[in-house]
Structures are given as structure tokens and as C-alpha cells.
Here is the input.
Amino acid sequence: MNFSLFLIGIVVLYLINCIKILTEYERGVIFRLGRLLPQPKGPGIIFVFRPLDRMVRIPLRVETLEVPSQDVVTRDNVTVKVSAVVFFRVMDPTKAVVEVAHYIHATSQLAQTRLRSVLGEAELDELLSQREKLNARLQSTLDEQTGTWGIKVQAVEVKHVDLPEQMVRAIARQAEAERERRAKIIHADGEFQAAAKLTDAAAKLSDQPASITLRYLQTLTEIGTEKNSTIVLPLPVDLFHGLSKWSASLGSRDDR
Here is the structure.
């Protein structure tokens, strides 16, 4: 009787030890006598009959993988240091266990090599200004390989681009020259528009000679409001033309 209770106690303890609990984001890949069971177990309570069974826990949440800084030579022969972040998750736990050893490490090594190869085909300007395009290209390239491992790469983000100091100074000089070019174009365009407006104003004033005198008086009024001790009195240009004609007529009389 005591021996039977002892056996029953051993069986109960064994069954309790076989109980495993998997959370909602975990799956258990079971190997029974070395053979893979068709479907992963979980979530919830499952039984793992040791030593016949061996279970590998696989999380299904999105993993964040930081790619260390890589030396990349761009297509225009500029050496930069680029770091990135990879977001991926396991879609097929069975393949993640059977098809690849240490799937996180394998994904990290693949991301480093693909980062150098993909960014090496781009020029520096494209790397700095078209990151979204390069991120999408990196994501599709990685996902094509990791898909056979049961892993889905959801996004790749180029986090930081470290430029050489000489290249930073060259880019700063280029930006400064571009700003100066735009300023000169805007200034020249303003001068052109001002000249056009002055031409139109001169044409309208020439239609009514009295308007020139009114403009002179308005100028004197503006000078007087500023409390200046010096008053500039502009003379009509037509006066000089009249004086020149009068002096010419006097010279012709003297010759006679």
C-alpha cells in the first residue's frame, strides 16, 4: 500500500513538472524524441513530457535590433559611418528554430552586411536627403532573406550618418554659396521690378508736366517734417533746357 502511494506521488509530481505555461506572445516548439511536432504549442497551459519532449520558447512580439555603426563607402567614394535600427518579429516559430541557429544573431549579421551593400550603391546626397527610399529598399532586401527563416522585417530606419569633418565643412560651404546665390537672384529681381515701376511712373509723370512740380512740393513737405536744418530745393530739368537754349541764342547774336 505504501509503495502504491509512493508511485502515485511520483506520477503526480511528474505530471506537475510537465505542466508549462506560455504567455499570449509566446509559442513552444516541441521536439519529441528528436522529431519536430507539426504545430507549435501555446498559449496557455501545455504538457511537456520530459525527457521525451524538449521545448523551445519563441516570442512573437516585435524585436528591436540595433545595427552597430558600419563603415560605408558611397558610390561617389565618400566614407561615412552609418548606424540603423531593425524592427522584426517571428511569424513562423517552427522555421525560426529549424531553419536557422540563433535567429536574432543571424538577422543582426545579415542587417550589417546588407546595410553596407545597399548604402554603398547610393550617393552621399541621396543618403542624406532620401532616407525613406533607402529604408524601404533595406527593408525589402532583408525581408527577402529572412522570410525563409519565418521572420518578417517590418521596418528598417537609418538612425545616424556620421560624416568626415572635411565633408561637413564642404557641405557647409556649399549651403552658404547656395544661400548667397539665392540672395543675389532675389536682389536682382527686386531691382528689375523697381526699375520697371519707376519707368511706368516716369511715363505717367511726363504726360502731365504739372505733376512733376507737385511731386517736388511733396518732397519738400517730407523733408520739412524731419526737422532738418538743410533744405534741398530741386530744380526742374526743363529749366536747364530753357537756359541752354537761351545761352545758345545769345551766342548766335554775338557772332553776328
Notes: Residues 78 and 167 are 9 Å apart (CA to CA). The chain is about 55% helix and 25% strand. Residues 2-57 form one domain. The longest strand covers residues 79-90.
